[in-house]
């Protein structure tokens, strides 16, 4: 019984920290209808501002909290003013993509400034422990609870009793009506981002003190936890975000008690998927609340795609195959081979996101499925490598479609959130299913790629093989997009309501797109596994999903050639110019921001 109460107290403490994150996300969504993927980066900034205040300036806790609140609040204003306000009249997906780019930039700047290594954030609270009714409570637990309750009370007072708070509530209820009544919507956005970012930064400080650990890599998981808590309570619902955070904290704490720490995040994402499937508006949404609006017709910027003559495409293909005859440097050929593998992933995502309009943020999971299926078939069953790769592509198409099928009936931002959660679940299942996947140890001794019994060891042979597979997949996808099926998929993207009214079975065609896209991604993951000869649950991380989306946007949504050009530009060029390797993620983030702002249709245009 005592252990149960201890886990309850721990869950409530962690839930209080999550609440600061989730409330900020709920406020931003309420006034901007935006899932802010940069919120976790602000959380990390708060932790590092706290580190400077505590370790270098030797400030007491009240002044440290003040420094974190002011610093991250100012960062929130900067994000809103510079990164998001110029996109106010852009396509609806643009601000979401911009927050992803902003997150890349902030995380990389933190890493370059403080190093990627974890650091200890000392607690400014005495390490006192109290035993009350058999339950152990620490002084820091009480401080976190007090900060959580005080923040909630101040926020309630602000929203209820101040003129600016009334303006925030009016804007959240009806933005256009509030503007017509004279509300300065820009000032409201500025205030909300400042408050939300201050709460997020305070959460980062408390987490650092609670675990005595901070790292630039914390941001992505923090964003995910905040989104989970917000969706559970109801997107944009501030009280719901608080309750959802406490529920998430308790779920994680009890899950750890039952199965161990490696299952902690798995419980969170399973809870998220269940809520999205059973009650997508959240636990505290009204039964009369309208479902989220689709992003149909506003997903990609209209443009005239650049079309190259067939002779020019044939010439470029021949030149690509002839490159190893001229350039014999192994590093260059290996880099371009990697670019062809990412091009296969880009082809998969440009079909799903660019053609059907399903914004998948968990596409790296398809790489993981393909890599593990092929590796296990070759290592455990002794299947020939080429047959294992083909089987991996087919299995990934089937498994990926089944996993993502709950998201087929979702709309708007919920599709992105669901695919992100499913991608994380796949990685956590791989980590914990030790009897099959070897768990954290991974799969080693994966045989190399071979054709007719001849292993492909040389850089040139690997280059030709990956290029040939990529070209075949690109030709198949181009054929599909030019068919009646391709036109049907684009109709779903443009207006799924109109498509349904014309008798198009949306789920069936989305499944076809995910199946074909999963096949391409699975082939890419399988080839990668055989080239690396070793993979584990971290080989295909969530950052690859964001990179794939950046590749697709750079080339042009739905554009087959654009996916190839985007992969060469983002994967090949930074690697070839070794001086930029350290700043690669920063380059990706800046590229995404510039594309969303000035060229949302991509280099080659959308199709």
UniProtKB/TrEMBL annotation:
UniProt GO cellular component terms: plasma membrane
Keywords linked to the UniProt accession: Cell membrane, Membrane, Transmembrane, Transmembrane helix
Coiled-coil blocks: none
Localization per Swiss-Prot or TrEMBL: Cell membrane
Topology versus the membrane: Multi-pass membrane protein
Transmembrane segments: 12-30, 37-55, 61-79, 91-110, 130-159, 191-211, 254-278, 312-333, 339-356, 385-407, 414-433, 453-476, 511-532, 544-573, 585-604
Main subcellular localisation: membrane
Superkingdom of the organism of origin: Bacteria
A molecular function (GO) term: branched-chain amino acid transmembrane transporter activity
Pfam family, one: BPD_transp_2
Name recorded for this polypeptide: ABC transporter permease
Species per Swiss-Prot/TrEMBL record: Prosthecodimorpha hirschii
């Amino acid at each position: 019984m005592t252990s149960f109460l201890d886990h309850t107290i721990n869950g409530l403490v962690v839930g209080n920290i999550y609440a600061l994150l989730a409330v900020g996300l709920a406020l931003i969504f309420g006034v901007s209808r935006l899932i802010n993927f940069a919120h976790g980066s602000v959380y990390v900034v708060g932790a590092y501002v706290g580190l400077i205040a505590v370790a270098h300036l030797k400030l007491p806790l009240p002044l440290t909290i003040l420094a974190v609140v002011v610093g991250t609040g100012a960062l929130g204003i900067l994000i809103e003013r510079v990164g998001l306000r110029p996109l106010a009249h852009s396509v609806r997906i643009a601000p979401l993509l911009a927050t992803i780019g902003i997150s890349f930039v902030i995380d990389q700047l933190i890493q370059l400034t403080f190093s990627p290594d974890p650091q200890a954030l000392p607690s400014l609270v005495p390490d006192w422990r109290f035993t009350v009714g058999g339950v152990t409570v620490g002084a820091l637990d009480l401080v976190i609870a007090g900060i959580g309750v005080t923040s909630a009370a101040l926020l309630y007072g602000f929203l209820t009793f101040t003129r600016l708070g009334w303006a925030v509530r009016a804007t959240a209820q009806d933005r256009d009506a509030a503007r017509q009544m004279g509300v300065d919507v820009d000032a409201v956005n500025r205030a909300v981002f400042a408050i939300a970012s201050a709460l997020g930064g305070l959460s980062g400080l408390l987490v650092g003190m609670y675990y005595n650990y901070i790292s630039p890599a914390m941001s992505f998981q923090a964003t995910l936890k905040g989104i989970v808590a917000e969706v559970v309570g109801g997107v944009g619902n501030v009280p719901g975000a608080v309750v959802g955070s406490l529920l998430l904290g308790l779920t994680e704490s009890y899950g750890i008690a039952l199965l161990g720490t490696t299952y902690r995040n798995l419980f969170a994402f399973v809870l998220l998927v269940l809520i999205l499937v059973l009650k997508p508006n959240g636990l505290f949404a009204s039964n009369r609340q309208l479902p989220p609006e689709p992003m149909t017709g506003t997903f990609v910027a209209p443009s005239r795609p650049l079309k190259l003559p067939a002779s020019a495409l044939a010439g470029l293909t021949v030149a690509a195959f002839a490159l190893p005859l001229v350039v014999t440097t192994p590093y260059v050929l290996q880099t371009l081979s990697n670019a062809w593998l990412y091009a296969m992933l880009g082809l998969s995502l440009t079909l799903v996101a660019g053609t059907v309009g399903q914004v998948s943020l968990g596409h790296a999971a398809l790489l993981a499925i393909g890599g593990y299926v092929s590796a296990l078939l070759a290592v455990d069953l002794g299947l020939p490598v080429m047959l294992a790769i083909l089987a991996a592509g087919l299995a990934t198409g089937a498994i990926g479609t089944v996993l993502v099928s709950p998201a087929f009936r979702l709309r708007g931002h919920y599709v992105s959130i669901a695919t992100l959660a499913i991608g994380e679940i796949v990685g956590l299942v791989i980590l914990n299913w030790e009897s099959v996947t070897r768990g954290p140890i991974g799969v080693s001794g994966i045989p190399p790629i071979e054709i007719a019994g001849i292993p492909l060891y040389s850089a040139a042979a690997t280059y030709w093989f990956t290029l040939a597979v990529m070209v075949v997949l690109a030709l198949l996808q181009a054929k599909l997009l030019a068919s009646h099926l391709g036109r049907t998929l684009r109709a779903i993207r443009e207006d799924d309501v109109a498509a349904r009214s014309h008798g198009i079975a949306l789920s069936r065609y989305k499944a076809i797109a995910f199946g074909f896209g999963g096949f391409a991604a699975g082939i890419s993951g399988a080839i990668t596994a055989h080239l690396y000869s070793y993979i584990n649950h971290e080989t295909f991380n969530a950052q690859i999903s964001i990179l794939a989306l950046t590749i697709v946007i750079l080339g042009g949504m739905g554009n087959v050639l654009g996916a190839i050009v985007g992969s060469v530009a983002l994967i090949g060029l930074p690697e070839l110019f070794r001086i930029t390797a350290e700043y690669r993620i920063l380059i990706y983030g800046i590229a995404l921001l510039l594309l969303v702002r000035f060229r949302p249709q991509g280099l080659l245009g959308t199709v």
